[in-house]
Amino acid sequence: MLGSNGSKESKESKESKESKASKAISKPFLRLYALALLFFSANSILNVILPLRIEAFGGSNSQIGFIMGAYMFTCMFFRPWAGHLIYKHGPGAVLRILLVVNGSALLLYTFTGWEGYLTARVLQGVCTAFFSMALQMGIIDELPEEERSQGLSLYSLFTYMPTILGPLLAVGIWDWGGMGGFTVVMLVIALATALFGYRVPRQDVSERRGTAAPGYSGMRGMLGQLVRNRPLLVCSVLMLLVSVVFGAVSSFIPLYARQIVHGHAGVYLMLQAAVIVTARFALSKRIPSDGKWHARFVGAVCLLGGAGAWLLSLSQVWGPVSFYSAAVLIGLSQALLYPTLTTYLTFVIPGSSRNVAIGLFVATADLGVSLGGITMGPIADWFSYSTMYAGGAVMAAAAAALALLNRSMQARTPRAESG
């Protein structure tokens, strides 16, 4: 009898844990993930089409990198304020305004020349800063500690899912559809995102409001927080360095692939995206979510990105095997690094300043991607794409060394401060 009761209690306990663990994939969160998928679907096409169109108009690698980098640079600039304003006004109202602005930016691409693309990239950057912060802070606030890494990984998973088929669609549009096909696709994406976004109930996004986000004290205060907080500083520098590699890939692979025997930009980007999506789905529960600093794990993930960049630099000599192997390694690095560092920071940063601090961290990731286009483009003009990607490999190796040199970082903030 006791054995039967014990078995029953064990079964109920197991079911209770499974029910609790399912919150990250509950219906409200699935709505938010689906909205993220729609919102970011245009980028998978624009990241291929824009470099090709700018080059066709006579633009240099420096100009391509500047326009492509403007998107994430704007994200970086607005991201810290996004956490503050979303806390103050509530994410529901902010999201609805952003969907209109984002739709306008997508339509701007369809009837302007490459000079007008800069305005559209800036508008998209502002929208993305607020949109992603609203959804990520909602996930962090609403999920229990042990599920944060899973929720953030699933959010990232859905933002990358369009990049599996998007690059191939973009190449098809470029080769056969022309601007007519491009216009139709942008219009469909803009309307679908707006209609779905307006149907997402407000209660699906945390509506906590206040007069100001705790911990928000202007740019000087935010930068001071970055310098004083060692975990935040280390994670931000790591993300900045490795994100340069990610930015150089997204900005210049559509052009570099044409220099590789049997190289195809759509296949490369599809393969990299498939690795990101698969890894985030399969490994979402294995990403550390215990508040501890896993220096070796983080260092290894950085080295994956560095090895991928090094293989890219050798692809003109070694051919398609090196080229597509780089997609796998960089995809793994991109899949694991961001959710690992973000989850760690949610534990070690006090709840009173977490929104702004996470905004600062994500801003450094944006800056890295932006610099991957803005600063690496001139290197490609002066030297070559191979030299550019070799430089990215060195930066990723430096990030790995930084992770290992900080093994003794604070494990976690006391629960009383964690909010």
From TrEMBL:
Pfam families: MFS_1 (PF07690). Keywords: Membrane, Transmembrane, Transmembrane helix, Transport. Residues 28-410 form the Major facilitator superfamily (MFS) profile domain. Gene3D superfamilies: MFS general substrate transporter like domains. InterPro entries: MFS (IPR011701), MFS_dom (IPR020846), MFS_Exporter (IPR052714), MFS_trans_sf (IPR036259). PROSITE patterns: MFS (PS50850). Its main location: membrane. It is a multi-pass membrane protein. The chain crosses the membrane at residues 29-50, 62-81, 93-112, 118-140, 152-174, 180-200, 232-253, 265-283, 295-318, 324-349, 356-376, 382-405. It is found in: Cell membrane. This is MFS transporter.
